Each structure stands twice: as C-alpha cells, then as structure tokens.
Input
Amino acid sequence: MAKVDLTIEICGMSGDGTIAAGALLNNALSRAGFSLMAFDSYPAEIRGFGRCVTRCRVGDEEMLALTSETHVLISLDDEQSFSRIPFLAKNAIVFFDNRPSSYIEEGKSIAARVEPDVILLGIPFKDLAAEATGTTRGRNITALGALAGVFDLPVEPFHKVIRNKFEPKGENVLLVNMKSFDAGLRYAREELDYSPGIPFPVPEKGDEETERVLLSGNVAIARGALDAGLGLYFGYPITPATPIMEYLAKALPENGGRLFQMEDEISSIGAVLGSFYGGRRAMTATSGPGLALMTELIGLGVMAEIPAVIIDAQRGGPSTGLPTKTEQSDLQAAVFGGPGDSARIVIAPTNVIECYQYTVKSFQIAEKYQTPVIVLTDFFLDNRVENVVMRHATAEQIADGNIYPDPALKGKYHRFEVSESGISPRSIPGMEGFLFATTGLEHSEKGIPDYTPNNHMEMSGKRHRKISGALADLPAPEEFAWDEALDVGVIAWGSTFGSALEAVRKAQSKGMRAGALKITSIFPYHVDAIRGFMERCTDILIPELNYEGQLANLIGHLFRKDVVRLNRVTGEPFPVSIILEKIEFLVKS
Amino acid sequence: MKTSGRALAAKVSSIKDSGAFAIRSRNLPTWCPGCGYFGIHQGLNNAIQRLGLPHHETVIVSGIGCAGRYPFFADTYGLHAVHGRALPVATGVKLANPGLTVFAVGGDGDGLGIGGGHLPHIARRDIDVNYLLFDNSIYGLTKGQPSPSSPTGFKTKASPTGTTDAPLDATLMALSYGASFVARLFAGDPEGIAAALMEGIHHKGFSFFHLYTTCVTFDKNFKTWDHLKEWIHPLPEGYDPTNLKQAMNQALEDHFSMGILYKRKKE
Output
C-alpha cells in the first residue's frame, strides 16, 4: 500500500498565478522524490476572466490516474474555490487567505461554506508577501511556502525550482519570489500551531537511475520525435496539439531540423509525405478537425506507399467540438477515415512515457511498412504532466526502417513488386537506376496506372498483407490479471487505461476476480491475444471517452457475447470510481 | 498502316536507347493528339537535357488532371499526388533533399481551384520548386467544365448559358503573392519554354511558369491554337524583369505578353 497518496489543488482567478504555482509545486515534489500526475484547467478564451485550477496527485507509487477527491486545497480566490468544495475529501485541509485585501462579506469566505470536518488554515498570503517584499505579487508562492511548512516538506527542492524559474528574469524577481516563499514557510512553522493528520513523508531516494523528469504527453511526443531524428516538422496550430509544434519550434532547429507552420493541415500532411518520399523523417501533429482535412492525403500515403507520422491529439468532437476538453472519439476516423480500402497503422499510448516510446517507434514502422502511422493521444494525456523515469531510445530503436532495393536490380527495378509480406523495397530520389513514379491511382508493379480487375485485387491484397504483417512490430496487449478465470475483464486504451487499471487493482484488493487488458495497437490489433483474454472472462467491460464505444465497435465482435460498454463524454478524464462501480455491479450480477 | 503494339514498343525502345528521348519515358503520353502539353513536355525535356540534370536527381510532383499524369511520361522520379496538392508535397520533397531539382506540375483547375490556397504560401516561403501551371482554362480530364481561369460567359456542358464568375489571372496572383520568379509562356513555343525554364531552374527560390495552352478536345472557342497564336506576343523591347511594379503593370494591362515578367534581384 502506498504511504502517500494525496491530491493537492490550487484554485484561483486568472491573474492569481494559479497555474504558475502549480507548475512550481509539481517540479518541487518531483525533485523531492515523489511520483505525481498533474493536470490544469483554465478558461478557454484568451482574455477569459475565469477560474484556474491546477490539480496534482502525489504519492510514492506510480500514478495511473487522477482522483476525484481533493485532500488539500489552496484557495487563492475564495469565490472561485467554492466550486471545488464538493470534491473535498473528509477532513481535507484548506489553505486560504484570512486577511484578503478588500472587504469580503463573511458568507463569501470559503471558511463559511465548507463542511465542518474540513480543516481550515487561514494564512494571510497577501499580507505576508507584502511585508516580506513590498508587493503582493508573490502571494501564490507564499501559499506554497505555507504548504511546505505545514507538511514539513524539504525546502531545498522548492528553493531550487524557484531559482530555476525566476533567476532568468533578474535578481529582483528572484528575490521577491524567494522571500515570498520563505514568508509563508516561516509563518506555517512559527505562527501556525498545526500538525496535519495526513501522512506526507518524503520517499527514500532511489539510485541515480530512477531520476525522474517532469513531462507532459505533448513534450514527450516532441522529445520522442527529436530522438528519432526528426528532420522536418510541418504543422498548423490546433488545440491540443499546438504545444508539440511550439516545443519543436525551438528544439528542432537546434537539432539540425526545420519547422514550418503551414497554411493548413492538408499542406502539412502533404509536405510530410513529400519529405518521407524524399528520404527524410517528418511529422505533423493535429486534432480531429485537422485529421478530417488530412484524410485524402493519408489515402495517398496508403495507395502510393509513402510513410508518414501523424499525431492526432484528440479533443471533444465532432466538428469544432470541445477544443479544450478530453475525449477519445477519433478512433474510427483514424482507423477507417477515408474512401476506399485504406488500411493504415494506428497506435495509442496510454501514458506519458508511452507517448515518447510510441512516437519514436512510429517512424521506423512507417518506413518499414511504407504507410502513414497515426499516433492517437487525447487532451488529458497531452496536457497532464507525469514525472517519468526517462530511458532514451536506443540506436536500434531509432535506426532507419527503410527497406531499399537490392543494388543488383539497378535498371530492372519494379517499385511495387508484389511480395508475400506485401512489402516492396523503396528507392529514394537520388538513387541512380531506381527511378519510379508513384501515384494515388491504382498501379502496376512498375507504378504505371492499371485498372485491370486482377491487378486491383492483387495490389489491394499486397497493401493489406503489409498492414497485417505490421502486427509483428507493434506492441502486444498487456495483461494485468492474477487469476486464470475472471469475472470481469476491463479492456481500455489511451488515457482511460490508467483509470481502468486503478479500478481493477482496487477491485482485486477487495477480492474481486477482475483483470485489465491494455490495448495500444489499435489497428491492426492482436486478435488472438485479445480473444484469448476475452475467453477467460465472464464479462468484458470497455470504458471509453466517447459516446458510441468506438473500441468496442472495433473489437467487440471477438467476444462470444455482447461486451459491456461504459461511455462518457463529459470532457473530463475517466473517473476511476465509475469504472470500479461498474466492475462491482458486474461481479455481483 | 496501323502499327502493332509490340512494334511500337520496339520502336520507342530503340529511340529511347539512342538518348534522343532525354527525359521522355517509355510510357507514351495519353494526351490527345494536338494537345498543347506536348509542347510543354518538349520544353521541359530540352531544358533538363541542356542543363544536364541527372534524371535520378530530378523529381516531378503533380496534382490531378491531364497535366497530373506528367510523372508517368517522364524518365525521372515522380510523385502523382492528389488533386490540388502538388505544391505542399513538392515543398516536402525539396526540403527533405535540397540537392534535388523539384518540379511541380498541374492544370488551372488543380492549381487555381482546389489547390489555390497553396500558391501564396509556397511563394512567400520562396521554396526552391519550379511550378509549371498548364493553363487551358478548362477541366479536360473530366471532359470539359469551366475552370477558375475561364472567361466570363464561357459555355460548357456544366455552364450551358455561360459562366458568371470572373476569371483568375495566375500571373498576377503569383506576382502579388511575392513569387521571386514569374514567367508567362506559350505551349506553342517549346524553345521559349526551355529557355525560361533553364533560367528558372537556376533561380534559387520559387519559380512560377504560367503556361498558356490548349484543350483541343473540349475547348473549340477560347484558347484554341489559332486564337493563342493571334493573341500572344513577346514582352516589349527593353523590358526590365527586375522591376516588380512594372511587371505587375505589364501583367495587368496585357494578358498576352510572353516571357520572364519578373525575377527578383539577389540581395
């Protein structure tokens, strides 16, 4: 059992420095040796004057999901924090400013609203910051100091992250923030006579190898692409994929590549295909509306057998949908989107480290199987941060995946030669004696348009064999079950898998025979492994953040009876508790 | 006498092996007899041959339409993409390997209609791609519908009472988008095309070739050989192609003067 498992929230109005304080807290806790998962929410409109919430689950074991209960709430604006009251756990601790700058009616203080079990720690954030620095600007940092003081957290990681963040902004800014922090810390230690009942011991430091890095899914993708030797990035701004482009805009040129913000998503995927055709690794990242625009050129990649790497950071849909909310509703568009029989490869990481690993992998797979690879992520996975143990890709993992023609075939080369595997060696412009033209028209082995009946049969077969064959190189489903026969088997993908696994572990600890199966290869998928798991289960439960049950639609036919679908489109990450309730219900019935 | 397929193939092979075909491929063009595209083909062929560009370091990217088939008829690397997207794909190819000579080809429907949104951006990025726009003001491959460069009142099966939309002028567009090299050429003058292409290929940056051509099958009234020959003429004597304002004036006031209208001076 975990010794520490706390959810800390900071809530304020835009301008209070809520998100900034959250980032510092995450960094400091990560440095201190905790494991964590954090996720921010803030107003969607740029000048939107609204509520900001940053949520961090921190513990000493691997974090799989967020919780719906908050153990510690730091209120930087009481009126905004009212909305967080329903999420407070029993005996939660609330830090609030008990000397706000302007007069506040008694009923509007959070102290007047919370349940009696809540522990209220009134600390004059603003006054303390002002006394120490002459400005109230650092009040969010004062609140962090108070948190560190109350829980007796090591101070050094906080000082370090404050230094890292503010030192580049000048000595004065650094001093203001450092003093603001220390003021909160001193107040909590010297003037607040309170010792929390919640355990928060710092985990024992492991060896150097377990050094953790704080990464979001998007940054992990960008780093994966860089480590895989990305040469060119073409993209168009779209939430929630834009941070990938912004990270690469600085990092890619520093690593010998170039980044172009294109005129739309169509040109982005067009240029990616052109680049791979020309022999250089390229990538684009988009979200649902952009993926829809790319459909035709993805089909060209399939037909003309040109690699491409496309990140689809899913958000709520259809159409413009819910740009800043999480959903898993592009699965069908990614797998089936497009006219004709256009099988392509779709993979979906379930956590931040897999975002890195699968992005690396997608380049080699795309090259080897000469086809577009779509990496499906979602808003929650893209934007949440985890502190992960970073293991950089090996030389083998980033090696060129292209299969080039045998030099002996010079002058006699047939680009689309039909083979058992469906793979035909691909020459690259610049190779003498291996000229070919490729096309989105159905074509002969030489690449010349050919609409004869047998040719289309044969070429369709070749392209599909290639995709089926790719299974050998794609990550197999991973099982988390300790019983042979299971009452409930939960199959999940993307960010929902973490919630599913945590629910299954809780069910197991209550003595239920439950198991989880993680699916990351969405298409093609491992029929035998999935069916093998299903056959051992009385019920199959598939929780997904979409209305229809898109994974259930894809693999449900493998089960002897109907799979149980559990669908939510609230725009929020899948709550563990809802999956657990469903497991309990199925076990009992 | 009708030549048998095998005899024709043998003949093509023998000419091919003699080297006279240059970039012409063993796959004979499927364009209609008398099509203006043959003249463009000859111009491009001659330019590549005269410059001695290695075929394996030459890539032709195309869109969809009669011009889109070009890669199959050229003995180079080729990428027949989708409708309207030759320019972004060519951008990717050129950036992937700047050592390649990259051409993008397509018709007026492909480049001014469905793909019209890409021309401004490749121009302002000044990607070193040579773009040949085959402008016959009609959709040929779909058998004769009006295109974005058809004149107002243009009658086709899809516009039986004549079109009401005004035509686009690709030369003016390219100039205003900031293309660093703009030429307007006539399919009936392969030597003129070859000469301009040779200069454009050398030009480091985006080169735009607006090619006035015919559709002998579906347009019997507008851009016919007879009309084009009557309308076109060279640029005025002493024309300075490095003056953008003058180029825009020329393009605006005289739609039929042929030659290199603009070439940005090296900084």
Remarks:
- The interface with chain A takes residues 27, 54-61, 69, 71-72, 74-82, 85, 87-97, 99-100, 117-118, 120-121, 125 of chain B (CB under 8 Å).
- Residues 197 and 254 of chain B are 22 Å apart (CA to CA).
